[in-house]
Amino acid sequence: MVSYAPLHLRVTTPQIELVGATDHLLEKLEPIVRTGKASAEPAPYDDPMSLYEEDPEIRVVKWLQSVWRGRGIVTADFWRLNLIVMLNNKPVGMQDVIGDHFNTYGTVGTFSWLSSDVRQRGIGSEIRQAALHLAFDGLDAREATSEAFIDNLGSNGVSRRLGYKENGVTWASRHGEPALMQRWRLTREDWLPHRRSDIEMYGVASTRKVLRK
Fold first, then answer.
1. What angle do CA 90, 5, 64 make, to 5 degrees?
2. What is the Cα–Cα distance from 23 to 25, expressed in whole angstroms?
3. Which domain of life does the UniProt lineage start with (predicted)?
């Protein structure tokens, strides 16, 4: 494996692991994207979104390109940690942690998707908790934000259970049609009562050095 710190990052819980999105793991995750198992109904993603592409070949190409762009565009003002969700040593989705003007505001956003095979088993909540642990304990974030369409009951339910506060609504489009999104905000103070003692992190110090360059 190449010596690029974010690719060696790992966050573990008793149920899952979040690991850096190496090309080797992306190749193993590719069949889920190709077969459309990364999407859901009602449509959960705002435009533009590679996972909405109808042609499986184009879908995979655009998805990979988006991950590679996130890997390459890392500055002190913006970075995106692409992490692959491992369940029973198999890749089943992705959980991203995004810092936009992080050095100024200390705010991270999160984005995730799971294969349709493993949904409704509490994995969505588990990977969000792992991402928040990385953000607050590992990267010293001040707050975390999330957004989901109003009818995305799963994502909104996770935010509510983990202590996020509603933070207004906004319009976004999906498949070219307008739809309302619920915004959520979680401060470090509101996260602390939910902090878990069974989450471990590896490779954080070296990753922080990359994100601050």
1. 55
2. 5
3. Bacteria
Which two structure tokens, joined as six digits, stand for 44?
């959960």
Number of H helices, E strands in the chain: 8, 9
Structural domain for 111, as ranges: 5-142+195-211
Note whether residue 28 is domain-resident: yes
Dump strand ranges (E) for the chain: 10-12, 17-20, 78-87, 90-100, 107-114, 143-149, 165-174, 177-187, 200-202
Short-list 160, 154, 142, CA closest to 93: 154
Closest CA to 166 of 178, 150, 188: 150
How many residues are recorded in the chain?
213
In a domain, 168, yes or no: no
- Please list, in sequence order, all residues whose beta carbon lies within 8 angstroms of the beta carbon of residue 36, skipping any fewer than 6 positions away: 56, 59
pLDDT tens for 41-94 read 999 999 999 999 999 999 999 999 999 998 888 887 899 999 999 999 999 999
Half-sphere exposure of 7 (CA within 13 A, CB side): 13
- Interatomic CA distance for residues 120 and 171, integer angstroms: 27
Any idea what the CATH number is for the domain that residue 98 is in?
A: 3.40.630.30
The number of domains in the chain is 1
